Amino acid sequence: VCMAWEGNHAVENVRKLVGATYPLDAMPGTIRGDYSIESADFSNEQKRAVINLIHASSDPQEAKRELALMFKESDFVSYARVEEKIFE
């Protein structure tokens, strides 16, 4: 499942939700912290990369590049948020 989030501090907020890059370091309550038990030590013993449950871009430039790989421009939609109507 690919998702594109937009808004103030979108990358930072998604990264908080996802958790630390290495699942073993991720806090409980994050996606990686709750649903993954992978560690760098174990993957090194297995001579493979860390198996990660979810990916999140690390900065806006990376997000822009990755979004272009996954989506066409026509996939994105614009809509008015309810608070925009209230404060017009």
* DSSP summary, beta strand count: 0
State the distance separating the first and last CA atoms.
35 Å
Compressed to H and E, one letter per element, the order equals HHHHH
Give the CA-based shape: elongated
Strand content: under 5%
What CATH calls the topology is: Alpha-Beta Plaits
Low-pLDDT runs: none
Class per helix and strand makeup: mainly alpha
Q: How many DSSP H or I helices? A: 5
Which value, in Å, is the CA radius of gyration?
17 Å
Mean pLDDT: 92
Biggest sheet, open or closed, and with what strands and sense?
Answer: none
Helix residue percentage: 40-55%
For CATH, the homologous superfamily is named as Nucleoside diphosphate kinase-like domain
CATH-level-2 architecture:
2-Layer Sandwich
Account of the 3D structure:
The protein is mostly helical. It has a single domain (10-86), classed as 2-Layer Sandwich (Alpha-Beta Plaits), CATH 3.30.70.141. The protein is built from 5 helices and no strands. The protein has helices at residues 10-18, 31-35, 40-45, 60-70, 82-86. The radius of gyration is 17 Å and the shape is elongated. The N and C termini lie far apart (35 Å).
